[in-house]
Amino acid sequence: MIPPGRERDDLHLRLGLKLYDMGMQDCSEDWILFSAADHLNSTSLQLENDDPTFLIKLNLEVAERASSVAAYQNATKYLGLARQSLSKMNNPWEEYYDLTLRVYEATVEVEFCLGNLEVVMAVGQTLLNRATSLDDKITTYVVICHTFGRREQHQEAYDMCIHILRMMGAIPKGDIGMKMKALKDFLNAKRFLSRHSDADILAIPLMKDKGHETILELLAEAAAHSHLCGSDVNYLSAMSLGLGISLTKGLSLYSGMGIMGYCLICNAMNDMKGAYRFSNIARKILEVTKAKEHACIQLFVGAAFSTRGRILQIRL
Predict the structure, then answer these.
(1) Digit-coded pLDDT (tens) for 7-59
(2) If we measure between CA atoms, which residue out of 140, 244, 122, 254 comes closest to residue 183?
């Protein structure tokens, strides 16, 4: 055993660099890079290269690999080390913006998966304060919306979804303007769905634009939280807006949920033939988009709303 000191640090450094070279080869296994990170994190010696962010990048790399196989406890350890290294720099958000953003984004997502909601809010707020563009903030905004939902703060989650959508220019700023657009989208969707066959609807191309995908995700979140707040009007508005985007911009894994919402309206209006038709279309959309998780959610929605349709019918 080598006692603590310069000799042990030198051994960690040499082993770490050797393992790093091996781990970066295409045919290497992940454990080699993890071992390299452990050795290099254990030494107090400075790495002899011109990149002061070398170890931060390495910790981020192994954290992302750990996250990809749901090893979140390992991921949070390496991300913590990466943030610790960043904190020792004078202006990491200015000098190494892209790298710092990646570290904080990864931290927010990993901590959410671990259920550390206070950490999510703290790290997420730092990112939102320092990020320079809306595009750089969107992912974190969405995770914070999920965090509010996990805390059962459904009104706050709904309000944040609507706030983000307005910042993105996806919906009108005023509440009345949003409701009017939702009504217009609903009537257009009703007209389109009545004039086209099931095959025509399923032939709509898949959505390729990431921005529209994010909008649909936020609308799905808004619909879910408005339902949990007991607001049928907000639920129908979010559903209609999402349905309008799906029919004009392409089908995505969230489109099936929008069609399912329309199915519930058919049910509320005693149009059982339409309800059955659109329920079947929603299921096929989820099959086309390979959205297995959302297929399970659809089954839940159908069960949860089995009596809800009668309530909607009374209010409509």
Answers:
(1) 555 555 666 666 666 666 666 677 777 887 877 777 655 555 567 888 899 89
(2) 244
Whether 145 and 242 map to the same domain: the answer is no
Place of tokens 């450094």: 13
Torsion (CA) 248, 253, 258, 262 in degrees, nearest 10 = 100
Q: How far apart are CA 29 and CA 35, in angstroms?
A: 11
pTM over 0.85, yes/no: no
Q: Is position 1 within any domain?
A: no
CB 36 within 8 A of CB 19: yes
Q: If you ran DSSP here, which 8-state letter would residue 180 be given?
A: H
Buried-exposed string 27-54: b where 16+ CB fall within 10 A, e elsewhere: eeeeebbbbbbbbbbebeeebeeeeebe
- For residue 58, give both structure tokens: 């390495």
**116 touches 93 (CB < 8 A):** no
23 and 154 both lie in a single domain: yes
pLDDT for res 36: 79
Q: Which residues contact 222 (CB under 8 A, 6 or more apart)?
A: 158, 161, 162, 165, 234, 238
Q: Computed over its alpha carbons, how large is the radius of gyration of the chain?
A: 24
Residue 55 maps to which CATH number? 1.25.40.10
Q: How far is residue 102's CA from residue 124's CA, in Å, rounded to a whole number?
A: 12
